[in-house]
C-alpha cells in the first residue's frame, strides 16, 4: 500500500462532502422562521423546513407526532450534530400514518417540511411549554452518524501492529507519536423516506 492511498481517500471524501446536496424530498424554498418566534404566534400557515433530535415519538389513531429538540440545519438540511448544533428550543411535527417509535427513537435526527399550525402546550418537568406545531408533509429520518473509535497511543491494532504500520516503512507507527487513531465506520445510506 503506498503512502498516497490515505491522501487519495481523504481527497475523495473532501470532494464528496463538497458535493453534498439536499435529499430530494426536502428540497424547496421555505420561510426562515425560528421556533422561538413561532412560539409567539403570528406565523400560522408558513411553510418551514425544520430539524432536530427526537425527544419522543407518539403514534395516535390517525397520525404520529414527533417531539423534537430543534437544531440548525447544515447544507444538506440535516440537523447539525451535538455541540455543533446549538439548541433552538423545541417543536412538534405531526404526520398522517403510523411511524414506529422503535425506529424513530429518542436521539435520532429528523428533518421535516410542512406548515406551521399554532402551538401545543405540554409539560417539560413542571413547566408548561408551547411547542410550535408543524403539519408535516415530509418526515425524513437520517441514518445514524458514523461511529468514531479512539485508540490510546501504543494500543495494539492488528492492522497497524504494536507501534508499527505500513505507512511508516516499518518505522514507528502513529501510536508512538502520541496521536490517537480514529476508525470511521460508514454505513450505507437508508432508502428514501416515505413522502
From TrEMBL:
Question: Has UniProt tagged this entry with the keyword Endoplasmic reticulum?
Answer: no
Q: Which InterPro entries match?
A: OMP_Slp
Name of this chain's protein: Outer membrane lipoprotein
Q: Which residues form the signal peptide?
A: 1-17
Q: Which domain of life is it from?
A: Bacteria
Q: Does the keyword Signal apply?
A: yes
Keywords (A to Z) from UniProt: Signal
Q: Organism classification, top ranks? A: Bacteria, Pseudomonadati, Pseudomonadota, Gammaproteobacteria, Lysobacterales
Quote any Pfam family the record assigns: Slp
